[in-house]
Amino acid sequence: MISATEITKKYGDKQVLNIEEITIPSGQSFGLVGNNGAGKTTFFNLILDLIQPTTGKIKNKEVDVRHNEDWKNFTSAYLDESFLIGYLKPEEYFEFIAKLRNVNDADLQNALMQYEELFNGEILGQKKFLRDLSKGNQKKVGIVGALIGQPEVIVLDEPFANLDPTTQIKLKKLLKELNQTTNSTLLISSHDLGHITEVCDRIVVLEKGEVTKDLKTSEETLKELEIFFSS
Ligand SMILES: Nc1ncnc2c1ncn2[C@@H]1O[C@H](COP(=O)(O)OP(=O)(O)OP(=O)(O)O)[C@@H](O)[C@H]1O
């Protein structure tokens, strides 16, 4: 379970986040939506202790992320390309992550086979450094890197952005399967209301840093969000 309690984040005089309470139970696939600048990446950065809140506390499985690093043993994330290591080839990057998460080579190779369809022949065996891959292919590497070893908590910031439509559909299928077949807690942000309502059990809407909707996903959710964002 992840809990964010009385979180505010200010830059100078500008308050960019003001969250009274968000609790994300284990195994939930949690979707975060909101217009540009709403505070989605800020929220994920706080969960990953990449920035500090102005007030409030974030706990990841009872670990206060600001004061104890144990959450790193069961949490992975891909927010942007700064999570990659540009001078490694994809295989080297995956091996590096596998070592970090105590995944042996046989298990890593098995896991990578699962992602062959997503890779579409453009990632493995190409002898290219990560820095030389296209933005979309870099993103595929980053997302798969976050999934290696099936961490208990996986945070993905706009995973569908920059991916071609075929890959978006494959990724959606993969994330839905992950949600159904494991107890991993999945936190995803997206501007694609269709994708996020398909993948996530719950959708939280942020508006100017505040939670304005918290919905259990149902058949009506997509329509409700479309109406909300068009008004
Ligand atoms: N280092 C910073 N200094 C000042 N303001 C910042 C900083 N980082 C973020 N902000 C501001 O915080 C607000 C929230 O930004 P954030 O990136 O979290 O939004 P977002 O919902 O992820 O947006 P987008 O959909 O455009 O990616 C924005 O107004 C942004 O300009």
Automatic annotation (TrEMBL):
SMART domains tied to this protein: AAA
MF (Gene Ontology): ATP binding
Pfam families per record: ABC_tran (PF00005)
Keyword Oxidoreductase carried by entry: no
Alphabetized SUPFAM superfamilies for the sequence: P-loop containing nucleoside triphosphate hydrolases
InterPro entries: AAA+_ATPase, ABC_transporter-like_ATP-bd, ABC_transporter-like_CS, ABC_Transporter_VariousFunc, P-loop_NTPase
Annotated TM spans: none
UniProt entry keywords in alphabetical sequence: ATP-binding, Nucleotide-binding, Transport
Domain of life: Bacteria
Domain ABC transporter: 2-229
Protein name, UniProt field: ATP-binding cassette domain-containing protein
Organism the protein comes from: Namhaeicola litoreus
